[in-house]
Amino acid sequence: MSHDQLTCLIPTYNRPAFLRRLFQFYEQCPLPCSFFVADSSRPDAAAENLDVIHRMRGSFNITYRHFDADVVNKIHQALQQIDTPYVVLCADDDCLLPPALEHCVEFLETHSDYSVAQGIMAIVNHPGKPPYATAGYSLVDDDPIARCRKMFRFNFSTFYGVYRTATLRDNFQITTTGLDCAYSHFFPELMLSQLSVMRGRVKVFPEIFYLHEEHDSNFSVTPKVSDPSRAVEMEQQFRKTLSSQLEQLGVSRIQAEHLVQKWYGLLPGLGLKQSDHHAFRRFRRFLNRTWRQVLNLVVRDGTIYRRSLRAADWSGQEAEWQEAIRLMTTAPKGISLSEVAEKRAA
Description:
By secondary structure, the chain is an alpha/beta fold. It has a single domain (6-223, 295-345), classed as Spore Coat Polysaccharide Biosynthesis Protein SpsA, Chain A. It is 46% helix and 16% strand. It contains twelve helices and ten strands. The chain has helices spanning 16-28, 43-56, 71-79, 98-110, 144-153, 165-178, 186-198, 228-248, 253-264, 277-294, 318-330, 337-345; strands at residues 6-12, 34-39, 62-66, 86-89, 95-96, 114-124, 132-134, 162-164, 201-213, 306-308. Strands 1, 2, 3, 4, 5, 6, 7, 8, 9 and 10 form a ten-stranded mixed sheet that branches. The protein is globular and about 65 Å long. The model is unreliable at 220-225, 268-280 and 292-304 (pLDDT under 50).
């Protein structure tokens, strides 16, 4: 894998301490790819981010851009400027393990019918809680409708998988055009998962490729809704956009609407009305419960979506795993500017 094959796209927002930690990880565990930092921070944090980029440019091939947009639209705009054939998203407070990432790129190079490849995601909690694994499963059906049906039934996120850049760019174009991504990240993430399986098969390897850190500054994917009518509008946008994409696969409009109703029919069944605040609360509980279920699914082939980590999960990349855990443990809030100054003075 080379800089010309893969770009690691890093969306960041007011967290230069985490950006410093991430690039310190890649100094210790080199990732042979290009980096694209998509920033939407306020001016003071953006200035710190630029300082990080300038200091790292001797070691990394980094592009920096500032966008005035929410995270989904920011990623969409950044994807327009990426010209490598493959791309992977990495949050500024997380870590991608280079050996597993290279494995994904090598797989996509030789399997043109797959749209995304990924591995196991390790969730790191603080303080003192053991990390655990969330693992999806490969979707290999020839029929994209069959893949969509399975993704609905056993939903898992492909947000941080390795994608063909053109595919992910199209997926974000559809999502940002059809949904109000500034208002909520819940429906956009559901849409992106469904689009990933419409465009091709999904490969999930039995190895850790991504470490995600849970802490107070992580955003929630559940809707930030302020009134029931807005929540209903968001759900209708999602259903309309998904139905139109199913039609692109050759499904009739009636059949597409029937499938979406069958898969996501619980939402209108809540009977939301603008004046019905009890129904609104039920709507929010439903979405929160749905997302918790996503994180605890057991699929039919016995693959546990959420489970304890095993040593075999990081086999062949022990050094990278240990360095990522060390940094997340010793610098759970990232590396501050004062810590950098103290290190230089020493």
